[in-house]
Fold these 4 entries.
Entry 1:
Amino acid sequence: MALLRVVIVGLLVVSAGCVGFGVGASDTGSVATAGQAPPGVDGGIVNATALVRAHERSLDGVGVDLATTWTHRSSVPGESNRTVRTRTLTDGNGTLWRRAVTAGDGDERRVERWIVGGRGFRHVVGGRTGRTDGMGPTARYRTARLERWLATGRYHVAAIESGTPERYVLTTTTYATPGGDPREADTVRYEAQAVVTGEGRVTAFSATLVTIERNKWGRQTRIRSYSYRLARTGGVRVSRPGWVPDIRADVEVADG
């Protein structure tokens, strides 16, 4: 158990470090008073949906460079280990989205999308390219998974950092969802942290969930981690990738 605790703590530290929080108990630069709390926040996250919608609105019309990472590790036979990384670049010219899925054996599959307005193209690296629909704000800013994690846990405001903009640091070590999952686990260890501006923009989020089940097969461990980071906002320029076909040529061929 001592070794397990060391492994878990190490994972949590790495998870928090990869998104560059730079926030500790004694170096937050917190202030005693603050302005109006972000939407969905009242001493903690009371409405993850309201917070995420405010986050999406704050990014509307802004150039964005966004990175996410989701990792699943399991000792359970038959469950696959994998890491999913996405990178989104969007501005007024279009949205370029990349995803890389790495399996436990090192095999990697990469997919890209290029969206302008209500339509675009999807390209499997090393494979085919085809048309695809446009993206709404939830897909463009990768917020579906973010919302689920923000709704998981009883958060509290750990610090309010002064500056422009003012930033709220929300943390939790208590795992809680409406369904009570994971119900089968004997032990649950959870740690998450979000950094949110007063208007509701989530600039960074990181979480790690460790579940341990003891059954007739022995001790089985699952580790899930997730990070969401706005690397840049404003000053982002997106170029049409070279794999996008010439749309005019497509039209000429279709017209015969």
Entry 2:
Amino acid sequence: MGRFLLFLGIVIGASALVFGVTNFVLPLTPVTAANTEPVASAKAAESGCSISTNFPDNVRRWCGLITQHAAYHGIDPNLIAAMIWQESGGNPDAYSKDGAVGLMQVMPRDGLAANFICPNGPCFANRPSMQELYDPAFNIEYGTRFLSGLVSRYGNSRDALKAYGPANVGYYYADIVLGLYDRR
């Protein structure tokens, strides 16, 4: 039984790497509802929109939140809009087959993602909950802050997007997002 559990742990850990778990080592301050300023609705934040009109309405509806959080974290709001377009198509209720949640498809600490085990324990233990990530304001803030940390770590958007996306696709994900970004 002990060998089986060891084997199972190795398989689950390897699966986590195959399915895109590359960012679990990036230290982030956990976000809670208390230390974000969620906007009651995307319409309330619509003033001050600075993303391109070339993005679809499903993405542009989040323009105020995108603009607010991108400015705060020093990221081009059009890049965040491109990520949202690729990740969820602008659907705040998006849920991937791998357990990613919301507009920016962030892996939460619970749900399916709780089954991803890394060498030091659950890969996403310090992440927000699914419930938190279904809040568009929270999801955009967290995803934007996460990307900002990756840009700081890797020094450029392409490598940061590679780390944000699935581990087993190389630059494929990054190049798709950058292609959407270039359409602006």
Entry 3:
Amino acid sequence: MMNADMDDLSARVDAVKEENLKLKSENQVLGQYIENLMSASSVFQTSDTKSKRK
């Protein structure tokens, strides 16, 4: 009984590790996508704050 529980727990840990790696990879892809969108958008470009003073 105890050995079966340990095997189940070990399998669960492996599954969670695999899911974690997958999510990290997806996060990197999404982060790069967001970075690309931000660099392409004028909204996020740094602008001269002096020209915006009234």
Entry 4:
Amino acid sequence: MTEHAFARQIRPARPRLRTILGATVLAAGLSCAPVVLPAGSAFLSTSAQAADPMQITGTTVYDSTNSLGDTATLKSKISALSKKHNVDLHVVVIDKFENPSTSSSWTKALATKNNWGSADVVLVIATESRQAYFLAGSTKTLSSDQQTKVYQNYIKPKLQNSDYSGAALAAVEGIEAQKGGSSSGVVTGVLGVGAAATVGAGGYAMYRRRKKKNAQQQPQRSYGAPRNYSPIPEVPLEELRTRAGSALLQADTTMSHAKQELDFARAQYSDQQVAEFAQEIARAEDLMRKSFQRQQLLTDSIPDTEAEQRAWLTEIIDNSQEVTRIAQEQDAKLAQLRNLEQEAPQAIEALAQRLPQLRASVEEIAAQYRALKERYLPSALEPISKTPTLLESNMVLCAAEVEKAQATVATARSEAVAHLRTAEEAASQIQALGAAVNTRAQELEQAQLGLSTDLLSIQRDVAEAKSLAASQRRDDLGAVAAGMEAVLNQVNQSASARPNDPLTLANQLRQLSAELDKAMTNMRATRERSRAASQNLDRTMRSAYAAVNGARSYINNRRAAVGPMTLTAVSEAERHLGQAQRLASSDPLNAMKEANMAIQKATDAQNRAQSEVGNYYNNQNDRGGGSFGGDLAKGLLLGALMTAMNSGTSSWGSSGGHSSGGSSGGSWGGGFSGGGGDWGSGGGDGGSF
């Protein structure tokens, strides 16, 4: 079964998923007075099950208490609200707020955990503690005054009657009214924002009866059991592309950050202690590969139906959300393992002691790069271009951040940890840049050594072509062979010159060999073609390794400047290279095809990345130009991209280059929707209802 045929076995439709890059949570919010309950109150004698902010996927309604009963009508109204006003309401019902324990902080933490953004609105109801909070991702979606009106006039009166399903439906009605829709009437019984209300024993008894009845009617679902998925509303295809692109970019960035944390933890502890984390991250990487393959299906030359496109885009969104969940979960566990808040002084001191070693590494790598520049042309060193500048910038950044960490560790531990993490990432970049230079040096040396062998091999092929052309009176083949002989002479001269670009020369030989094989296809038996493919495969694989490794190292060392299409291209290049490796011994003809595809995809990724990085540098120059010091390195660090995502300021322009601000663009048909939420102030008072 072909990949297209397999992918066309469309999975069941998934729910509408809004993936927004960076739902950042600010500390701002409404302060609420604590509720004082009388001694002997029914609330004090009831054991509440606390709930931490959880990851919610596949549904807009999450009810861990079974208090809402049948939610079909509610979900339908939420879907209609989303279609009409582009507002996504999430209703969450729990027993009690915990970790954090305040309703406002808990709600904001929930928004962050689920990457909800500016177009999202959330209503959280804690039934046991009798508290609720209503919050919009941005005041552009609902102003603070509008949020207050929705909560006080629509939601709260229902809550006071323990009508939780009615409160959720009232939230839809209230949002509809504030966005200009019709309303069947405004519920009265308004209390001021921040007011705390207590509920009598009669109201609580009604609530307990209602909850028990609903629990009897609705079967309990065990933890981790699959949820029923609703169909995705028919949104425009381009909007679905936008969401998929944003989701994939966020997932790749989040996972890259988790992998980096894994490397930090592995350096601090043993492989055995981080094996569980590595296994989960490997599972996330497999999902990423599948998503990139689906994206490749969407961009190849084979026409796809709209149903196929929607199915694949939905799969990308689903996979990306799962990757983000895994990566964030492992990231949090690794942070807990490292416990930097407690061990900050020791970690800072350890990195400070490494600074002289890092400085020596920077000088050694810079010297190696200068030696390479004497031997090879700039084109051969493009994947590691600007290495000296990036090395120095990261070294400056690392030293400066260590100094700041040392200065603040005694008085502001969290701030010191933030400086330490930036310093660690800069140190990691220095090591990565050094590894990239070493890899490129080895690839160039191997290519140079292989040129003489490749030249002899192709010269024999050209001689064979000339002989066949003469014996079979094929003037066309003779002309091809004569032209190739002239090119071979030029390559031979360039191979012995200094400086040169042996990888480019090897590519020229590979292309010559491919053209010669094509011209002689009808004159060779299948076995002979396989023999020729085996002979040519070595040089093609060398070119493929160099192209893929070069593109990947270039992208990894400039991660904050590249977009989703570039990541797709390099992932596809790695997939084709892996397939070529698997087929090399058993099927050299198809291995050759896969290796050539790897080269093509890697070249595409490299070109895209260079364009995006060029735009990034131009933007930096426009903002101040010239000498960056540590700022250049800091801007390209993965942490900078994570920060930009969390602040909602990163987007991808129509050319694929990086820009800041709003939404839109990219080959996906648009950038991220909404631009992230500020989650600053809500209309829910956070007190008891």
